[in-house]
Amino acid sequence: IEIIKSGKIIPKLHRVIEAKGDLNIPKKCLSCGYNLTEVDGFNGALSLVCTNKNNCPAQNIKNLNHWMKILDVKGIAESTIEKLIDVGVVQKPGDFYRLSVDGLLSVGFTKRTAILIVARVWKVNSPENIKDNDLVIDSIKDHSSKKIKIPLSKFFAAFGIGSAGKEAGSILEKEIGDWQKIKIATAS
Questions:
Q1: pTM for this model (two decimals)
Q2: 59-62: long-range pairs with CB below 8 Å, 24+
Q3: H/E/C letters for each residue in 117-152?
Q4: Distance CA 173, CA 182 (A)
Q5: pLDDT digits (tens, 9 = 90+) for 30-74
């Protein structure tokens, strides 16, 4: 078989070069050990999906990366998110906004890396181009003291709910109103 890298972390069966023997499909997730289920994937491909939706480390990395991507946070790679999870400072989206330079220093990040991570979370424009760490820290303080305005449709899409992206968020905003009402809404 020929396997290619799909996205940043997931291997994908690209093609069968020569069929030999029986196909041995994994039954357990390599990340958490839970059962895998087969689902129809992109372009008719069969995908294996972990059934441990709430506690699978690989899915958590994917979901947090999705959050950052949808909210246009640039420069925080999947590998960085994985490190943040591994050292215990990020588990859910809100944890990104509680990160501090000192907190990241205490878990082993270098000063510059810690500053850049926090700056990127707070959407400091191109912090890597600012050579003076004190100027970046001042920018972080300035950006973090202001509310980040996110369209409701984009915020809703960032949660990564299957079949519920920006369009569904726009419909909910139009029909229900604000986020507080959407949180308590029930199906009728």
A1: 0.74
A2: 59/31, 60/85, 60/91, 61/9, 61/85, 62/9
A3: HHHHHCCCCCHHHCCCHHHHHHHHHHHHCCCCCCCH
A4: 8
A5: 989 999 998 887 677 778 889 998 788 888 999 999 999 999 999
